[in-house]
């Protein structure tokens, strides 16, 4: 699979039995929604699946950022806002295949999740662990 941002070949990283695709060139990460879903089921955190669904189903935002194509279905991904100030957008597959985070964007997402919920959800903890592991790999 190739990086939707820089076209570099991505490497598969397994973490907590979830396979993630990581770009060693630009540090972006592709989260397959099916893999995240399985992980939430396996941890019994079914209640948190709405986080994922919310992100995938968020309305498209107006932005001049470059459009990317989903590495799975090749459809142009939509820009979804994870925070307004500063404005941060992630790329979501219009068919719900998954989410793309540029290197650095995940930190903003985690702060946003913490602020919205007041407590750190396991999905946020998971994402931060993945990104810490990623930084050690880089
Ligand atoms: Zn890349
Ligand atoms: Zn797709």
The share of residues in extended strands comes to 15-25%
Low-confidence stretches: none
Number of helices: 4
Q: Give me the side-by-side strand order of the main sheet.
A: 1-2-3-6-5-4
Overall geometry comes to: globular
Structural class: alpha+beta
- Secondary structure: number of strands: 6
N-to-C SSE string, H for helix and E for strand: EEEHHEEEHH
Please give a structural write-up:
The chain has 138 residues and is α+β, with helices and mostly antiparallel strands. Helix content is 35%, strand content 22%. The protein contains four helices and six strands. It has helices at 33-42, 49-57, 105-117, 122-137; strands spanning 11-15, 18-22, 29-32, 78-84, 87-92, 98-101. A six-stranded antiparallel sheet has the order 1-2-3-6-5-4. β1 (11-15) and β2 (18-22) form a beta hairpin. α3 (105-117) runs antiparallel to α4. It is globular and about 40 Å long. The model has no long low-confidence stretch (mean pLDDT 81). One zinc ion binds at residues 70, 72-73, 75, 93, 95, 97.
């Amino acid at each position: 699979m190739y990086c939707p941002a820089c076209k570099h070949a991505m490497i598969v990283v397994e973490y907590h039995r979830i396979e993630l695709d990581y770009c060693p060139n630009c540090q972006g990460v592709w989260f397959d929604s099916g893999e995240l879903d399985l992980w939430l089921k396996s941890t019994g955190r079914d209640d948190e699946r709405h986080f994922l669904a919310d992100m995938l189903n968020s309305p498209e935002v107006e932005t001049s950022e470059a459009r990317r194509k989903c590495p799975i279905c090749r459809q142009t991904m939509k820009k979804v806002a994870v925070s307004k100030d500063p404005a941060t957008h992630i790329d979501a597959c219009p068919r719900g295949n998954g989410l793309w985070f540029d290197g650095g964007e995940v930190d903003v997402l985690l702060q946003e999740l913490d602020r919205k919920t007041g407590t750190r959800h396991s999905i946020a903890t998971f994402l931060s662990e993945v990104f810490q592991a990623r930084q050690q790999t880089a």
